[in-house]
């Protein structure tokens, strides 16, 4: 006799954490007025009725509010983690217990469990995928070609995911439309810069309780995230060094008043290192050798590959946990290197990720991006699409209103002036 396995309904740490999760989700909602308005409209209009949706995001209080919006819009939605260390277990419990949203995510899950959850999500046979880092879409394209015809489209949250989608497009394997949420101005201007800026330092401080005033902080990468981290580290009184590979960004960092040099020079000067490049092995064996005793290294960019932890582990004579999310690697040269959050995103591993007020705009883009895909079902050729400028502007206008800020509007005379070419000096 063959036994049909019972399909797992959810995979979370502890359902009894739900009431704590509810309190924290409600707290986050107070700072998410734009998403709240979208949720109210979705509840009336049900744009996702009859559609299966999977969201692969960090399972946080902010993502919970997005999931609630999607469900209010009629989606048959499930949620999995986009990172093994970022799940807030009380949030996962609350979504399952109080909202009936299946969640497959446990803080600290191993890589096998993480990938098993991706497979379970794909078993849901999604029509829409919200991805953060492109792991679900990449798995679908590699392993589930028979499901491609179900897909209306995907929305991608982060820079790294867009880089992977662009590579898929180049290789001719992207067979559906993908909405580039990261490129919306109301996303990366605020989320990548102010969100990563604040929450990365929050993660470093919660993990170590280090005083940042007077320390030398080395920021690798001066993109949107790097600008935020450098700006906030300076605000706390750190001396900031920036490393870059892009000459324009390097000039920008120099003109913003930071010291710019290669990692091979910065390695011996830094007390705290933060990688935010989206690239691999930005800090590697040769750099660890040069670092000061007790130097702290962490990543707020791309998965756990920006810091070459394998080579550090191979060199180390001892690795020990010294605090939560803080491990000390002893080296044969007698010095030690402290690694935060296992080299994964320190802001989500050791702190709570970006504050709700910025995720409000990022997830408004996600919600409206999904609706846009449904409204344009069958009309968008395979490719990567920006969020329409009108939606971006609408989100900014709603946010501004919620912040109690009003701004000027163009006069008829000004409109006339900026649309004409005849009046000059
Ligand atoms: P970006 O493209 O704006 O910036 C990345 C910068 O890193 C670029 O200026 C690039 O020239 C530089 N760079 C690349 N390789 C380098 C190297 N070897 N050394 C030094 N600099 C190098 O990207 P972004 O929006 O700033 O995002 C950076 C990473 O952070 C991405 O992986 C993104 O997915 C991730 N991200 C994380 C969070 C978070 O919550 N922690 C938030 C947003 C984005
Ligand atoms: N998934 C990969 C790629 C980076 S994730 C990884 O985990 O390594 C970076 C994204 O996390 C950002 O684009 C940001 O929008 C998102 N993020 C940051 N704080 C968050 C929060 N509080 N809740 C949900 N997502 C968050």
Structural summary, described in words:
The chain has 425 residues and is an alpha/beta fold. It folds into two domains: 15-187 and 354-403, Rossmann fold (3-Layer(aba) Sandwich); 197-349, 3-Layer(aba) Sandwich (Rossmann fold). Helices cover 44% and strands 16% of the residues. The strands form two sheets. An eight-stranded mixed sheet has the order 9-8-7-10-11-14-13-12, covered by helices on one side. A seven-stranded parallel sheet has the order 3-2-1-4-5-6-15, sandwiched between helices. The longest helix is centred in the middle third of the chain and has 24 residues, at 185-208. It starts with 17 loop residues before the first helix and ends in a 7-residue tail after the last helix.
Secondary structure topology:
Blueprint: H1 18-29, H2 33-45, E1 52-57, H3 61-72, E2 76-81, H4 89-99, E3 103-104, H5 111-123, E4 128-131, H6 135-143, E5 153-156, H7 159-170, E6 177-180, H8 185-208, E7 216-220, H9 224-235, E8 239-243, H10 247-255, E9 259-260, H11 263-266, E10 272-275, H12 285-290, E11 295-299, H13 309-315, E12 318-323, E13 326-330, E14 336-340, H14 346-349, H15 356-375, E15 383-386, H16 389-402, H17 412-418
Parallel strand pairs: 1-2, 1-4, 2-3, 4-5, 5-6, 6-15, 7-8, 7-10, 8-9, 10-11, 11-14
Antiparallel strand pairs: 12-13, 13-14
Features:
Rossmann fold; binds nicotinamide-adenine-dinucleotide; alpha/beta; Adenosylhomocysteinase-like; Adenosylhomocysteinase; 8-stranded mixed β-sheet; EC 3.13.2.1; one-carbon metabolism; disordered N terminus; 425 residues; 44% helix; binds S-adenosyl-L-homocysteine; 7-stranded parallel β-sheet
